[in-house]
Q: What sequence folds into this?
């Protein structure tokens, strides 16, 4: 207990009355003089409707309004609280008539707000089981009012009850239990505000109150007013009454008022947030001197002395709860006291444990009531803030942070941090003058928002500044997801402002050939170079490069938001930004500005390989920008029904669990378990920094309202949760530490060819390029996506093969770089569309044969044993490609050998792999089954290798329609590690693996179930030991460091990121803060266990399990006060 002291020295700050006016409720009335008996205006004022003092003329209405009492069964008593009083129940018979009534006067039926108070003393305890009437003007009617006491409860207390009649119905309002000791006088009072709220008082202390809806003024009745007993049910008050008063309006009975104001009720441990505001008001007619204020929380109390307060004067201060207490629920009691008077306010606060660093897993479009179940899906974040919560364009203006706080707290209570999912462009999209115009000065049809307009820039800058100011103190706001959906359908604009913008950037006019965002067919351009090599400053190319690099406005819009964030973030350096979609525009880097992360989804999620392709494209865009942006994987959890089930088609599986949605079947269909699992494996195989799952309602029904997404497959939820529990949660922290493993084979996405030929991998990919890319993956040729601007900036360093499909037109600088690269030994594998300015080292043709020049080998590639999905619209291109040697004579033999080997292959993936080997690619890993996909990433000096089963067939869920192969099929294979000395760890099973030694190197047998994946860590250094250093003793309120070390040969730190599971149990066996999954980088991890001051003394346990080798260790720590 702190000793009292002047409050100014201890509280956080004092608020001015001007500030208080903006945060306080309506000022409470000053206290009437009930403590010393009503005299003068207290008895006869205009507000007094009736006053009975029972003194010299005991039955006279002291207010002067003539409400003379009539007495029957009760008796005046000369020893009241002030002078005389009234003895209400003078007979020991329980129901004896003991009524004192005032006549039925109109003024005794108040027309609006009113108050009543009296002094009461219980003098007999024979009737604790009986109710007791104080005032009754209602009887059995539904008019006027009645004030009574309930029977005594087990604790010796009674509740006051006020019953109000509104003509056609009545409402009861109850107080908190109050103690009325026998022989002691107590002042009782209530007030009704005329709009549904009743407040009770005992002395100067509040006794609670209640609020009822649809209540206004009471309805006047014709009955008299009974004092001390009921008009019909005769349960008189068992004692004496004095100073009975009925008043118009809400009167003051409290000595002082105490308000605790603040939206925050839930904090993460050690979170610094907006403190609670505490307002103290002196309501007494005299100066309040030496009053105290105390805060009690978690067993600790702080006490302070208030400054002297004049009548009606307010004093404001702030209270920041001790968020360093151990996680749990706490009762905060704020008490204001003076002499024997005490007023308290109680509120429940919750402190949540902080979460370890995790891989963010974001689920969107959830309501607060859905949140507890989102954790089951591995969620760490939810989109708790949207346009509605934006302070600039939202619904609540300056009240945004206050109104949004319950949403944020609901997330924290469920262990979820908030992401602001903003679509600010929708606000501008409503305004015609922010639409792009065609060459005729009319809006494009359909219209497209002009993100480059000054309105959009100002909108983003101002929104960011206001939003950041409103939420920066909420430490559970993690980042902002900036939706840029219109970028995928951006079209050039021809307004005066846009023409001037391009003129300023290029000193040129927009070429006449430019009409839309898709580019211009080179065959329609007069005088186009025959070798299809265009100058870098070609007018058409220059315009589109400017437009798609930022001229469309989304770069400036996103940068505007980042600028506003930077200006107002203060200490919130942890808040990130994400832009989505990203790769639905042509392949050029930096087009979305300086955001922290890029994200996008595969346009065809019927093919899991495309989920991996989308992330590869994001990585290329990030690399091309030079900004070091991370990428998020994005896996939708449902299909559009028409994509897998044609209109009118009937399915099995209980008609795909057809559910009524506005009178028809569901619009979207849950992914099959195998497709769902494989899509997630393909995405996680890449070095993503987080995951986004649109449409989580396709797995579990939403509780927060209707949704287009509904579960249609019984076991998709089970499949997803299994991966969340086995992979995303335990391995997530490690997976975010990976970096791309630079491949010797790259795949060029040519921006210039996209502009002049309209083809390539972006926007869902053309069938030809997609077929080759997928075949490379199945042939275990890991392939990096590269952009044109990367080629002259180190993008070809270390590459052996560059795949160039549909690269019809190229800029001169790219051709120059590639020729030099070929002269240095690089090889180009291209199709017949290759720009004539380049010569391919190997050629892909359209026929279904594999042949090699000057050899007699000819063979048609066989179809795979289990067919896979054909690319959308690719039926006419389903044949395999052909390879023809076009290399120089000096290298002819090597190409012949590769082509000869390719002819003996039984599938296109194997043929491509053998050809790439012949062109110089040296595979790091091999697998003898092209249904098993391999993808590697860098983990320090180790390699993280994902192995995923892509073998599928049609099923009877939706596959019978021929649009998707939704059922997984088991696969067997052998993984060749290509080395003689290596250490292999299965991270999905926390086990060290012993490869089999063969002539070709170390091998591992693979047995993969449907849609199954594995994660191997392949390291030159072995994990030999895992140690834990923990102090033997620690004190509550101090910090204990747990140091985890993973070492290799010679006790050296393990040169890789190693996933570990840390289990922490406190003295009571409960899960303690920081329990969870971690990653040990460079051999060491230090956890700072900040012990709370209110920890339970006893022995703590810290247990560590290495999720690579399976090595475990544990230690114990004695915690004391």
A:
């Amino acid at each position: 207990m702190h000793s009292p002291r002047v409050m100014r020295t201890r509280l956080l700050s004092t608020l001015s009355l001007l500030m208080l006016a903006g945060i306080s409720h309506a000022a409470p009335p000053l206290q009437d003089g009930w403590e010393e008996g009503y005299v003068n205006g207290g008895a006869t004022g205009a507000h007094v409707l009736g006053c009975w003092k029972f003194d010299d003329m005991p039955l006279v209405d002291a207010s002067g309004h003539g409400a003379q009492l009539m007495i029957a069964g009760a008796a005046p008593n000369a020893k009241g609280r002030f002078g005389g009083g009234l003895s209400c129940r003078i007979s020991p018979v329980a129901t004896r008539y003991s009524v004192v009534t005032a006549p039925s006067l109109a003024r005794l039926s108040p027309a609006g707000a009113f108050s009543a108070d009296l002094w009461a003393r219980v003098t007999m305890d024979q009737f604790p089981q009986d109710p007791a009437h104080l005032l009754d003007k209602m009887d059995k009617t539904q008019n006027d009012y009645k004030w009574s006491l309930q029977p005594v409860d087990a604790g010796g207390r009674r509740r006051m009850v006020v019953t109000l009649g509104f003509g056609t119905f009545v409402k009861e309002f109850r107080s908190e239990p109050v103690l009325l000791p026998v022989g002691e006088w107590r002042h009782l009072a209530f007030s009704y505000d005329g709009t549904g709220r009743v407040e009770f008082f005992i002395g100067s202390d509040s006794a609670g109150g209640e609020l009822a809806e649809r209540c206004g003024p009471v309805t006047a009745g014709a009955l008299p007013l009974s004092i001390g007993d009921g008009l019909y049910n005769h349960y008189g008050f068992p004692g004496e009454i004095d100073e009975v008063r009925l008043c118009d309006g809400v009167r003051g009975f409290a000595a002082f008022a105490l308000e605790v104001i603040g939206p925050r009720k839930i904090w993460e441990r050690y979170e610094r947030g907006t403190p609670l505001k505490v307002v103290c008001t002196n309501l007494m007619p005299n100066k309040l001197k030496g009053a105290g204020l105390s805060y009690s929380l978690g067993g600790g109390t702080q006490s302070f002395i208030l400054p002297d307060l004049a009548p009606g004067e307010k004093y404001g201060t702030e209270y920041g709860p001790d968020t360093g207490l151990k996680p749990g629920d706490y009762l905060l009691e704020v008490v204001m006291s003076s002499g024997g008077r005490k007023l308290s306010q109680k509120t429940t606060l919750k402190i949540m444990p902080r979460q370890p660093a995790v891989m963010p897993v974001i689920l969107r479009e959830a309501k607060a009531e859905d949140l507890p179940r989102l954790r089951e899906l591995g969620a760490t974040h939810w989109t708790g803030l949207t346009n509605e919560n934006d302070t600039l364009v939202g619904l609540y203006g300056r009240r945004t942070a206050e109104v949004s706080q319950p949403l944020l707290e609901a997330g924290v209570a469920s262990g979820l941090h908030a992401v602001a999912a903003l679509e600010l462009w929708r606000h501008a999209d409503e305004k015609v003058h922010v639409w792009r115009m065609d060459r005729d000065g009319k809006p494009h049809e359909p219209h497209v928002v002009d993100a480059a307009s000054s309105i959009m820039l100002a909108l983003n800058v101002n929104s960011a500044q206001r939003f950041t100011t409103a939420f920066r103190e909420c430490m559970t706001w993690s980042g902002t997801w900036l939706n840029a959906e219109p970028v995928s359908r951006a079209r050039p604009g021809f307004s005066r402002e846009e023409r001037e913008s391009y003129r300023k950037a290029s000193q040129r006019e927009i070429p006449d050939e430019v009409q839309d965002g898709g580019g211009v067919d080179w065959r329609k351009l007069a005088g186009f170079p025959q070798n299809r090599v265009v100058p870098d400053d070609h007018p058409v190319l220059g315009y589109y490069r400017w437009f798609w690099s930022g001229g469309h406005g989304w770069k400036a819009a996103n940068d505007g938001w980042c600028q506003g964030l930077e200006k107002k973030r203060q200490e919130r350096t942890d808040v990130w930004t994400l832009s989505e979609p990203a790769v639905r525009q042509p392949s050029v880097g930096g087009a979305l500005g300086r955001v922290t992360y890029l994200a996008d989804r595969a346009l065809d999620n019927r093919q899991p390989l495309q989920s991996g392709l989308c992330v590869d494209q994001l990585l290329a865009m990030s690399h091309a920008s030079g900004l070091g942006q991370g990428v998020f994987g994005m896996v939708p959890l449902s299909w559009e029904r028409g994509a897998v089930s044609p209109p009118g088609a009937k399915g099995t599986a209980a008609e795909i669990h057809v559910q009524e949605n506005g009178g028809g079947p569901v619009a979207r269909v849950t992914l099959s378990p195998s497709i769902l699992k494989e899509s997630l494996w393909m995405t996680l195989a890449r070095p993503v920094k987080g995951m986004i799952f649109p449409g989580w309602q396709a797995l579990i029904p939403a509780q927060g309202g209707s949704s287009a997404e509904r579960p249609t497959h019984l076991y998709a939820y089970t499949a997803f949760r299994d991966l969340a529990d086995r992979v995303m949660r335990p391995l997530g922290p490690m997976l975010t530490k990976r970096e791309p493993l630079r491949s010797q084979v790259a795949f060029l996405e040519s921006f210039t060819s996209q502009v002049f030929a309209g083809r390539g991998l972006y926007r869902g990919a053309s069938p030809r390029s997609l077929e080759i890319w997928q075949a490379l993956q199945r042939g275990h040729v890991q392939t990096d996506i590269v952009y044109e601007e990367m080629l002259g900036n180190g993008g070809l360093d270390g590459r052996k093969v560059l795949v160039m499909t549909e690269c019809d037109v190229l800029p001169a600088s790219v051709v120059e770089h590639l020729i030099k690269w070929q002269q240095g030994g690089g090889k180009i594998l291209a199709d017949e569309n290759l720009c004539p300015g380049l010569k391919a080292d190997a050629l892909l043709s359209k026929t279904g044969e594999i042949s090699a020049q000057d050899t007699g080998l000819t063979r048609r590639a066989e179809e795979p044993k289990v067919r896979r999905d054909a690319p959308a619209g690719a039926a006419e291109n389903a044949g395999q490609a052909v390879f023809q040697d076009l290399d120089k004579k000096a290298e002819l033999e090597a190409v012949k050998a590769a082509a000869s080997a390719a002819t003996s292959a039984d599938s296109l993936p194997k043929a491509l792999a053998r050809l790439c080997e012949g062109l110089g690619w040296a595979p790091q890993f091999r697998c003898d089954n092209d249904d098993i996909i391999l993808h590697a990433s860098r983990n320090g000096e180790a390699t993280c290798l994902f192995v995923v089963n892509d073998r599928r067939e049609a099923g009877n869920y939706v596959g019978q329609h021929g649009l998707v192969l939704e059922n997984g099929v088991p696969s067997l294979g052998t993984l060749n590690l290509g080395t003689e000395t290596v250490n292999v760890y299965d991270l999905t099973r926390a086990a060290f693996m012993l490869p089999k030694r063969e002539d070709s190197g170390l091998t591992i047998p693979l047995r993969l179930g449907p849609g199954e994946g594995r994660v191997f860590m392949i390291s030159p250094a072995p994990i030999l030991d895992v140690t834990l250093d923990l102090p033997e003793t620690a004190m509550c309120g101090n910090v204990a460091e747990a140091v985890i070390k993973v070492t290799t040969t010679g006790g050296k730190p393990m040169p890789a990121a190693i996933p570990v599971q840390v289990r922490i149990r406190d003295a009571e066996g409960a899960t303690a803060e920081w329990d969870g999954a971690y990653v040990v980088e460079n051999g060491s991890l230090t956890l700072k266990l900040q012990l709370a001051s209110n920890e339970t003394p006893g022995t703590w346990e810290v247990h560590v399990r290495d999720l690579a080798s399976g090595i475990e260790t544990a230690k114990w720590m004695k915690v004391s006060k």
Summary: The longest strand covers residues 341-352. The chain has a mean pLDDT of 88. The first helix runs from residue 17 to 23.
